[in-house]
Each structure stands twice: as structure tokens, then as C-alpha cells.
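Q: What would this chain look like folded?
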Amino acid sequence: MFAYSVKRPYTLPFVVGLGGLISGILVYTIAPEAEGHGTDAAIDAYHNKQGKIRRRIPFVKLVASAITIGSGGSAGREGPTAQLAAGIGSAIADMFRLNPQDRRIAVAVGIGAGIGTIFKAPIGGAVLAAEVLYRRDLEPEVIFPAIVASSVGYSIFASIVGFEPIFGYSTQAFSVLRLPFYALLGLVAGGLAIVYVRTFYGVNSVFKRLRIPPHVKPMIGGVAVGLIALVFPEVMATGYGWVQLIISGNLQALVGGDLPILLILALLPFIKIITTSLSVGSGGSGGVFAPGMVIGASLGGFLGLVFHMLFPSVVPSVAPFAIVGMLSFFGAAGKVPLSVILMVVEMTGSLQLLPAAMLATAISYTVSGLKYSIYRSQVNTRRDSPAHMGEYNTPLLSSIRVSEINLRNLGVAPEESVERAAKMMQELNLFSLPVVEKDRFVGVVYLDRIVNKKGSVSSFTEKGASYVKLTSTADQAWEVMMKNRTMWCPVVENGKYLGSITLEDILKEYRKRSLALNQTLPFQETPKHE
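A: My prediction, written as C-alpha cells:
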């Protein structure tokens, strides 16, 4: 079936499984947050962690992903690159002591610049930075900084590897007669995107329920991928080589006859979905962007070849369908339709495919719906993001008293060692803690100030931090969090520290109140006009 061979194919399950084991040990020993795909973690940091990304995470992610991909695991490098760039943005924000809003912008800009640079698509990358955070919204404050960062990243990267579009210059003339075929491609791509998301998180859920050491799970996924690769080696690693073959039409040179090509292209999307789910969904480290591109390109190549066989005069080439399929599929799976439409132009160096990409992506995005996204940390709109809670939810938040929110016993003594304080923050998944001395709130100690440092907490305490009282409101507590650059707010009454409320606790109370309000509102029928 294939015109190539592996000298010792029986070693594939062992090699891929070993890569998964090493990657798992590295991740779960040093930075458990680096498991899975990187872009989603960066999105989560934007919405829920004030843009805070631990310094070690991007580098652990980079090495672990390189091991996963290098050993043959089905994963991509764009996600880890995006998380690395986002982590650098977060580190720069900490270095200049930027406020949480600017830190979030730096993280989002890093995501877009990282992906836009790799694909030589700076405009698409800039829009992606604003679009990938939401399922049906954009972050306008991110766009202009992302344009600057993407331009700089692209210029440096392309000056080394060349400025040519990654798919070459497309010179094929556009024909309106092909639009119905692109519409059908978009329809199928939207449905396949749902299959991709459901399969990925279904496998992920199964692995999470397994009661075995977490670092062993990627090994199991790797062994399974290696077994599949014995029959279908195209599913290994990023798969970009196969995409290039599909687009260039050179697959014919490797596989004889049209039927085997159709069979490979028909099976490859589904098998790639399964192997990616096993490699990354098991807890392995890698991206889901590249596998998504391979899945979409295979789907587009399959349908393009079918259309070519049926209507050779209308569809003279498979390549445009592979390119449009690749991007329309991920536009639906990642909920980034505008970004991928722009990327089509930049990656082909031509406007010829723009109408086809617009039609196919719009249809695929609509068919896939808002429920299914490969990035689970996305929220629907800015209104749903904790990052904008103070902008949209102030009326309801102002009705919630601090006394009605659960108080947490957070705090570290001034004489405590910074090593102990750092360990407490990591256990609590926080980047700062209140410093408390004999029931008195002293100030705040930040994780980035004490990492790899020696001494007592008192030497690194920032005094003069704001606090609230029991009679204060939730929106006032949120404002204090923004001012203190924390995810918690100290509560002090008559000079005594009572505890802290966290952003998570405020959101829980807000959702409870919002649900109760919706249930008690009377239903009003629309007036009928006679």
C-alpha cells in the first residue's frame, strides 16, 4: 500500500510510548500545568489567572512537546509555541510590573504572534490574538499590540527562513463554478470539527478517570499511537509532510492508483483525530493546531479529488480544496473563522482563494455551533469573561455583600520562609498570599518576587495593600483585587484580619444570584397586534 518502509516497524509502539513516558515524567514532576495542549492553557491564564503564567511552564512545555513530537506522537508545535510566547509576554509584564489588564494583553499578544510567525501570517496572527479568546467575540484592546508583535516576529523569522508564503504563490484563477463544491466542503468540515472535539475530550475524560500515576497515561496513549502507526504511519508527529504532498499533488508518486489515494485521504482525518486524542488527550504535551490542519487538509484533499474525478474541467486541481479544507476545519474547531480567512491569503500569497475560504469557513463555523470548541477555556463573549467582570456585571455585583461570600483562611506569617510561602502558593494555585501577623493584615507577598530566593517573607512583603470590610460589596472587592494584582481580597474588620475572598468565590455567588434572578423574573408574552 505504501512505497516506503520502516526498518524495524515493531519498535514504533515502544518508541512512541517511551516518548510519552519521558514527557509525562517531565511535565508532572516540574510543571503539571504544562500537560495537554498549550494554547488552551494560555487562554485560561487570560480569563482566570490575570494573565499569570509560571516562568517554568513554557520551557517545560517546549521540551516535553519536542519529546512527544520527536518520538512520533500525534501533536503539533504551534500550541507549545503559543504558550511559550504567551509566557514570555507574562514574564515581561511582571518585569515591568504592569497591571493585570496589561498583563492579559501581553499574554494574548504572545499567542497570536507565536502562531502568526510560524505560519508567516502576521495579519491572521494578530486577529487570532483577539479572536481565539472567545467563541463569538473579539478582544479589541489586543488587536493593535498584536499587529506590532506579529510584524516584528514575522520579520525576524522570515529574514532567516525566507519571506515566501508557506504554500507558495497560488496563481490558479478563481471560478465561481467551484463555489458549490467549497460550500459542501464547509458543511462537511463543520460536522467533522464536532467529531474532533467530542472525540478528543471523550478520550481525555477516559484517561482522567484512570486510577494510575499521571505520568504513565501519556505512555499508554503513545503505545496506542505506535500500534496504529504500524498500519497507518501518516498519523505520526505533526503530519505536515503529508499536507505538503496533498497540496503539491506528489502523493501519486508514493501511492499507485486513484483508489488507494482516496482510501488514504478518506481514513486519514478520522485516524488522525483518534491518534491526536490519544497523544494529547492522555495528558501528553503538544498542540492541537497542527493535527487540525492535517485533518482539514486530508478532508479537503479527499473531497477535491472526488470533485476532480467527477468534474475534471471545473475542478482541475486538488490543492485549493486541501488549503481551504485545512483552514475552514480549524476555523470551526477553534472558533477562529476571521483569523483563518486572513491566513488563507497570507499563506498562499494570493486573493484567489479568498471567496472560497470565506464561504467554506462561514458554513463550517455555523454548522459546528458554539458548544464544540477544541479550546475549552474559551468563553462565549467578553461579558462571560472574569477579565471583564467589573465592566458588565457591576449592577449585580454591587448588590452582593462581602459578608455573604465564603471567607477563606489564606495567609502566611512574616517569619515564614519564602520557600514555604512559594510551596503554599503552588499548592493553592495562587500567585500571591496575604501576610498576616497576629490577626493583623500586613501586606502581600508575590510569587515572582520570592522564586529562587532565600530569607523570610517579611523581607519581601509589599505593605500598604488595600482591603475591604464585611459591609463592602463584591464589585469593591474586585476593584481591590485589580489594584493589589491578586486573585483574592483581604477582609479586615476593626483592624482584625478575618480571611480572604477569592475571585472564584465571587463568581460562584454571582452565578447563583444570576440564576435565581432569571428564575424569578415573570414571563412576559409578546403583545399581539390585532
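The chain has two domains: 9-368, 393-516.
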